[in-house]
Write a structure and sequence with these properties.
heterodimer, A: 252 residues, Rossmann fold, six-stranded mixed β-sheet, four-stranded antiparallel β-sheet, B: mainly alpha, 13 helices
């Protein structure tokens, strides 16, 4: 197995008395598409935020591309990017202006050409000069994806990439992500509670519950381990199990 | 399994390109809305018109104003430099909160101090857009040109702008700590300092206890200096040096407080959550 792109050791995050992430350990290998799966409040977004350096862990260590994120995040950030429907791009700027600003923040050469190419690929060229705030939810998601791919990241972190999209647009976005991953061999970590999305995109799933990773495997392995037919059933088993989680007990 | 010994690109340090990108972001915003651009010109022009007529009236009814026509106009325009300087920092900062954009900005390679520099740059741009047309308008309307102050004007302008930056950064820190609930501070906070800044009257008018406070403000030294130039035709070096030193203190404190608030925001997860 190649060296992991993400290495997380005993990472904990407390907000006052609330333990949001509890001594989590995991590694994500290069080129994998991995899901963080869990219900609301399981700690998925908190974990992603710490990986991005937006949130400081209370304890533990995060290494990305072998670099300590707490000490050397600026060596790593040019090689990664992120998209979330919950973090907006400036509404009053046009799509082109937003992509120009972010392209310049990443110091990208031949930015105009890159924006045009990305716009064609993501089918946003028709509204490149429209204000971002005036786009539909599906259009905004594609623009957010364009921003997340503008630096051709080796590591892409996605927080619920198809939340609030109609099935057709959601399917299109998933297809695009598959194509991007195959073409670039990027490592992708996505937080989601959309089981179809996870089954389609991910070779590896980490199940989170109450701030801990309680199980891990490929979608097929998890389904077999729990004696279920779908990943959704596995998810419900884990989400509805008692205070102390036991996969064998949950499987029964 | 050990961590990958990847060779990460070493792109540490200040980048003029990233600073330029952020300035461009705010210029795009300014360009996208003509009412916003007009608002920059509107208040300084209205203030100047009101105080211009007041000055004309007082010229014939007040020996103080009669000694140097334009003293009130110069004061109002210079006060606006400080107010607009602070507001320029705060508004650009608020734009990021309103658009919930901090999460995207700080997963890019943008450093917090590069962002701060872009806020200061935009503050200068906004002050120039707001104050220079008002100053030019005063020439045909009231036959008073603030530019006759000469080089001291440049010193006063810079000193007040830097004080505005220091205040703007402290307000930015409060916004990072308390979110948009503290938004009104951006418009109100500077007026708390107006009485002790002695904009339209000498510091000696203030009660003794308030004079002590006044001398800790660069603005009080600047306005005393302005009156010395206009009434006595001399540049008061003591006030100038005191204002320079105090400005340094204000700017350093403002920057430290802002960067500390930024770190605390990362501890609380506020960079992702903050917004309307």
């Amino acid at each position: 197995m190649s060296h992991p792109v993400i290495q997380v050791n005993a990472v904990t995050k407390r907000f006052g008395e609330t333990l949001a992430v509890d001594a989590v350990d995991f590694a994500v290998p290069r080129g994998a598409t991995t899901a963080l799966l869990g219900g609301n409040g399981a700690g998925k977004t908190t974990t992603l935020s710490m990986l991005l350096g937006l949130l400081l862990p209370t304890a533990g260590r995060i290494r990305i591309f072998g670099e300590d994120m707490l000490r050397h995040r600026y060596r790593v950030l040019p090689r990664m990017n992120f998209s979330s429907p919950y973090v907006d791009l400036p509404h009053r700027l046009t799509v082109r202006q937003n992509l120009t600003v972010y392209g310049r923040l990443y110091g990208l050469p031949r930015l105009g050409e890159r924006i045009e190419r990305l716009a064609r690929d993501l089918q946003i060229d028709e509204f490149l000069d429209r204000q971002t705030g005036k786009l539909s939810a599906g259009q905004k998601t594609r623009v957010a994806l364009a921003k997340a791919l503008i630096n051709e990241p080796e590591l892409l972190l996605l927080d619920e990439p198809t939340a609030s999209l109609d099935p057709d647009t959601g399917d299109w976005v998933r297809g695009y992500l598959e194509t991007y991953q195959r073409r670039s061999h990027a490592t992708v970590l996505l937080a989601s509670h959309n089981m179809n999305e996870v089954e389609r995109l991910c070779s590896d799933v980490m199940m989170m519950r109450k701030g801990r990773i309680v199980d891990r495997g490929s979608p097929r392995e998890l389904i077999e381990r729990y004696g279920r037919d779908t990943l959704e059933q596995v998810f419900l088993d884990i989400a509805r199990s008692g205070e102390r989680f036991d996969p064998r007990e949950a499987a029964q | 399994m050990s961590a990958a010994p990847d060779i990460a690109p070493r792109r540490a340090g200040f980048s003029p390109g990233r600073l330029g990108a952020m300035v461009l972001r705010y210029l795009y915003l300014l360009r996208s809305s003509w009412p916003r651009a007009l608002e920059l010109l509107y208040w300084p022009a209205i203030q100047m018109v009101l105080w211009g007529f007041t000055s004309q009236f007082l010229m014939t009814n007040s020996s103080y104003v009669a000694r140097a026509g334009g003293v009130l106009l110069a004061a109002v325009m210079l006060w606006d430099v400080m107010f607009r300087g602070q507001l320029g920092v705060s508004i650009s900062f608020l734009e990021e909160l309103w658009s919930r954009n901090l999460g995207h900005l700080f997963v890019s390679p943008l450093r917090p101090y590069e962002w701060v520099l872009s806020l200061l740059t935009m503050s200068l741009v906004r002050v120039i857009i707001g104050v220079v047309p008002a100053a030019l308008l005063a020439i045909p309307l009231y036959h008073y040109s603030i530019f006759t102050l000469g080089l001291p004007l440049l010193a006063f302008f810079t000193l007040l702008l830097v004080m505005g930056w220091g205040l703007g950064l402290v307000i930015g820190a409060l916004l990072l700590r308390h979110g948009l609930g503290a938004e009104s501070l951006a418009w109100l906070a500077v007026f708390l300092l107006a009485p002790a800044s002695a904009v339209y009257y000498p510091v000696s008018v203030l009660p003794a206890w308030l004079q002590y406070l006044a001398w800790t403000l660069p603005s009080a030294h600047v306005f005393e200096g302005m009156r010395a130039v206009m009434f006595e035709q001399r540049f008061p070096l003591d006030h100038f040096l005191a204002a320079v030193a105090l400005d340094g203190v204000y700017l350093v404190i403002g920057t430290i407080v802002f960067l500390m608030a930024f770190r605390q925001a990362r501890e609380r997860g506020a960079l992702l959550q903050m917004g309307e």
